[in-house]
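Structure ticket #2291
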Amino acid sequence: MRIRILEESLFKDKRFLHIYHMREDENHELLSDDEEIHFLELRKMKKFREDSPDLVAGVYKESSL
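Resolution: structure written out below.
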């Protein structure tokens, strides 16, 4: 797994996390379940946190249980 943390937005949608898998060009066979590239867009994540503070706090609370 690779994680790319980006300060600027790369994708046009509103999501701040995108996950890609590697596939063969012709038959679209998945290379591996373990081979992923995660793109985390910090600018969008900050905007999400500002717009949804209660949701973000709930996620952090649940993950610490």
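Closing remark: The helical segments are 42-51, 53-63.
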